[in-house]
Amino acid sequence: MSKPFFAIMVMCFGCVVEAPYMDLTQPIYLVAEESFFSGCEDHSDGLEACQQERIGEVEKGVGGWFKHFAEPTRPQVFIVMSRADVPNNAQNTPIHLRIEKDFCAQVACYYNDWGVEPSIVFNNRGALFPIMASHEFGHALWLGHDVPEGRRSVMTPTPSAYVTPLDMETLCEIHGECPPHETTWCEGSFYDPCRCPSDSFEEGHTMYLAGEIVCSEDAKRKFGKFDFN
Fold it and tell me: Quick check: 13 pLDDT over 90?
């Protein structure tokens, strides 16, 4: 079995394997493989509810990147149930979603190898959270783990629990076709009452830890951490 792909590039017998470049002006397709719904047949609310729940987790994670773009120019992502549902003229290489126990060294990973389409792989269906999808989808967008010291990012091995302005800046440095987006915490699409009135993540997070910002229980969970590649 080939090793999972943990960064933007990996050396392979003297060759360089790159993550396929994603053109943000073209639709991006995520293909939910059968394994992605493993165990859904036993879900208390039924198969369809379980499928929608898992798709919803990924949609939230991907939305962590693209909800910050103005709707008219927002990159389009479609989750489909079969590779056959991807249009023949699709410009971006589809990304597969699957669950494979013990495949990744941590709870999730982005896998890319010669001759196969890339995948976001989750080790455990019971630990499928939006933050994992955000992190691994970031790899598909060409972002790596290299983050300036002291800065918060969804791309660090122990990531921020949401996409930060630094992540958006890095994304748009990589993707020249990146459409306009908001980069402040207290207005526009980055508005977050948990961190206002601060206008930077670093200051807002410090205020949160000091108890100067009071958050709801849901908002507090956004500061949780996971370890994955």
Answer: no
